[in-house]
Amino acid sequence: MTAVTTHGFTKEAMAARVAQDIPDGSYVNLGIGMPTTVGDALPHDKEILLHSENGILGMGPTPTPEQLDPELINAGKQHVTLLTGGSYFHHTDSFMIMRGGHLDISVLGGFEVSEYGDLANWSTGDPTVAPAVGGAMDLAVGAKSVFAIMSHTTKDGKPKVVRECSYPLTAGRVVDRIYTDLAVMAVEEDGLHVVELAPGVTKDELQSATEPKLHF
Amino acid sequence: MIDKRVASLEDAVAGISDGATILVGGFGDSGVPTELVDAVLDLGVADLTIVTNNGGAGDNGVAALIREKRVAKLICSYPRTKEAHWFKQRWAEGQLELELVPQGTMSERMRAAGAGLGGFFTPTGADTELAKGKETRMINGRLHVLEDPLPGDVSLVHAQRADRWGNLTYHSAARNFGPTMVTAGKLSVVQVHEFVELGDLDPEHIITPGIFVDRVVKVGSK
User: Fold this and answer.
1) HSE (CB half, 13 Å, CA atoms) of A18?
2) Coiled-coil regions in this chain (chain B) (predicted)?
């Protein structure tokens, strides 16, 4: 056997790390993109109910061909199923669930998160690209806890965990935890606290890939 | 006698005029009243304001209205989907005004219209560029933004079953904006897959009471 040096969390490991922090009995919304991967990582011994913004509570996995209902889609417009005990409701009720503080956890992707928990995930500010926001702002302000899951740096190696967001905000001071390929961080009054370093990642390496000063 | 059933799509959209604001149900491909929107296209009206979650997809429905330059303004939360090529083209050409609204705010603005409210304060987007120029207020220590009601001259909605009084049931996630939009349109038009007799819908299961609905028309099922 060749020894493989592990460095950082894989995408699957990031999803599993988020899933580990979701308590049994939680009502959770998973955003489009990387957050969706958390659904596959949820442990089967916990009863966690997934909410979808288009009016589903108790969303189940991808259907078999026999189960397929063309109208039953998730926020990412992918076909899904409904668990036994699940329910449908209309959009205004669905966003009441989100904005009214009834969801325990919202897992969102991020372009940038500041050390105060400001989230930017809807616009790069590029005037040649039509803006689109969907449910991101409602999810960011509404849930009891907001988890951001994203790569720690951009493809060019620029930090995405920053002092101040340079992209337009989705919402200010909302993120509670940040999950990246390098670490898990908690947003506290006095700044960012490292909860866990990914395998093989050193404190110095994490700090140098991060704009604000981290508390270890 | 109350009978809201109409015989054809042409009858269903009769009277819609140039410059109308039309609320169009649907989220992605789910619950889109495509046949009604196509009937609006056939009607030939223009200078429309369309309120809908996405920017149309492919070449039918809202995408066709945008392609044919019938839409002056789109009020929308997420226009930039993969299949929204006509939206992207007309927007880039400067032929289509876009008002971007967070999804929950869009839905609640229509609810406010249907509920006879003068608007509401929401924390959603209050500290973002989408609140620019709007009145804000601190409520319980949190910044909120004042959002106006969003009524329609017409709402076009897709449901599953209707009786002649216009009582409606929906199917799975196709319900989405329907129950809110029918309350917010001056003229509410619903396409369904099935007409049933009065009394066939369990009163406990009716999602939209017929009072909100003006016309129902039957279209083929998927």
Assistant:
1) 36
2) none
Best of B23, B27, B134 to disrupt the A interface by mutation (most A CBs within 10 Å)? B27
How many CB atoms sit inside 10 A of residue A189's CB? 5
Contact status of B166 with chain A (Cβ, < 8 Å): no
CB-based contact (8 Å) between B165 and chain A? no
pLDDT, tens digit, for every residue of B43-59?
Answer: 999 999 999 999 999 99
Domain of B178, CATH number, reads 3.40.1080.10
Q: Give the end-to-end CA distance of chain B in Å, rounded to a whole number.
A: 31
pLDDT digits (tens, 9 = 90+) for A95-107: 999 999 999 999 9
**Helices A91-99 + B103-114 axis angle, to 10:** 120
Fold of A11-215: Glutaconate Coenzyme A-transferase (3.40.1080)
Strand order in the sheet with B161-162: B168-169, B161-162, B194-195
User: For residue B185, what are the domain limits?
Assistant: 18-101+150-218
Q: Note whether B98 contacts A: Cβ–Cβ < 8 A.
A: yes
Smallest CA–CA distance from B108 into chain A, residue: A92
What's this model's pTM, rounded to 2 decimal places?
0.95
**Annotated catalytic residue: which of A53, A66, A115, A196?**
A53
Test A90 with B173 for CB contact under 8 angstroms. Answer: no
Domains in chain B, number: 1
pLDDT of residue A212: 98
Contact B50, B65 (CB under 8 A): yes
Closest Cα in chain B to A68: B172
Sequential DSSP letters for A43-79: -TTS--EEEETTTEEEEE-PPPTTT--TT-B-TTS-B
